[in-house]
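User: I'm writing a short report section on ligand binding and want a predicted complex to refer to. Could you take this sequence and nicotinamide-adenine-dinucleotide and write out the structure as tokens? A short remark afterwards would be nice.
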Amino acid sequence: MLDRTTQLKSYQTYIDGRWTDAASGKTFQTFDPYTGQPWALLPECDKVDVDIAVEAAFRGFENGPWPKTTASARGKIMRRIAQLIEQHAEHLGQVEVRDNGKLISEMVAQTKYMPEWFYYYGGLADKIQGAVVAVDRPDHFNYILREPVGVCAFITPWNSPLMLTTWKLAPALAAGCTVVIKPSEYTSASLLEFMKLVIAESGLPPGVVNVVTGYGAVAGEPLVAHPKVAKVAFTGGSATGARVNELAAKTFKKVSLELGGKSPNIVFDDCIIDDAVSGAVSGIFAATGQTCIAGSRLLLQETIHDQFVEKLVGMAKTAKLGDPALTETQVGPVTTPPQYQKILSYIDIARGEGAKCVLGGGAAQKEEGGGQYFIKPTIFTGVSNRMRIAQEEVFGPVLSVIKFKDEDEAIEIANDIAYGLGAGVWTQSLKRAHTMARRIKAGTVWINTYRAVSFMMPFGGYKASGLGRENGVEAIEGYLQSKSVWINNGPGGGNPFVMKTAS
Ligand code: NAD
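Assistant: Sure. The structure tokens for the complex follow:
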């Protein structure tokens, strides 16, 4: 049972293996989105704290025990991290329910699955291999070293704080990097609990994982700009991602960006209708629509449009709104007040553009299971792909239904968007499934499923949805760099003014 004690809890942040307040002594409140009440105080870090944290991470990378830890030993620590998460999964999940308003059912699934990332990348740590190259010169022995990039800055959003940190932390530690994490100012508590229960107990040396809590402009910017940070891994909105990319470019940092989406969920008339209806509901109403991969554009083949909408509305209207801490709740609160206002404004925009609201369309009142920040699951039909409600990320439980005639038109609509994060396709035709998978411009295509993720499958965006990939073997590459070593075992000499080529 979730403890909703009303007395404010005070957190410190974790830098260089020690618990500390912000250097300025400032704090800020974090809110329970279900009650709308503040429940904890967090250190408001700024550039001074960022400098201390980055220096600790830099020392941790250059000196001390971490650079001397073998890859196999890194793997063992990571398996210990996985076990500690298993041990504390329930508590970590409950803190996220309190701080973020995520459903307890979703958090049980997420925290149960998170250890897999540490087992998987822990197993990969001692399989990072360089190569010997039979270079085109006599008497040479050439090889390639694979080295960690250095200090990594992670900047994460509020919607899945622990899971999205895990996607970065596991490959970074496996590669041998050190880390400074700036979580979202709306949802930092679960990360601090993770530091206390997992990282501090894992055997990681001080300075390997550090946290600076605080606001984007005050703590995030100096972290991205810091000259000793070698790589920035960012998850958040596309506009913030562009700013982070611009800042990081000034000091030539490596960057990975996981950004927004406006993913098409495409339903053909040869699909299993009930599966597709459930997939459409899951695509947009799970996690209250606050997911980057939300299937927020439902593309329906015109031959099944009316029948599908009827079934969809029938299922969506049964969604149970309420306390996210109760297992029977299916739609929880919106996490932040600005996000709540933004969703309501997009509902007005859609109406103003002439879309037809066939379900929901506003705030949910107390008697409907709602409360302060609840929005009713909302469906608009008659949407054209050029409308703002079809082009812009709402990040809430608002679905735009768009009709299409055939495969070509479905592809044209699906790809006519700035984003390219995910896409769903519902069909029983194998040929159509493969054709659509090839033609859709998105980092993930789900056929007859939606919102499935795994530590084994690369995840990331095309176009404005981002740069680089998380998860899978590929993700570890983002935390490594190659060094080419040339050893001449033969005679020196030759013309010193001419480049040494294979002649
Ligand atoms: P946001 O962009 O507002 O904030 C993300 C993080 O960036 C926060 O920690 C914030 O404090 C920080 N930040 C803000 N301004 C900054 C600056 N100038 N310099 C450095 N850091 C700064 O995003 P949000 O509202 O927290 O999250 C929602 C967005 O995240 C949505 O657009 C969603 O699609 C996206 N998202 C993407 C993925 C993905 O994997 N592609 C996953 C989850 C969320």
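A remark for your report: The two ends are 74 Å apart (CA to CA). Residues 155-159, 164, 182, 184-185, 215-217, 220-221, 224, 235-237, 240, 243-244, 258-261, 292, 393, 395, 421, 461, 466 surround nicotinamide-adenine-dinucleotide (CB under 6 Å).
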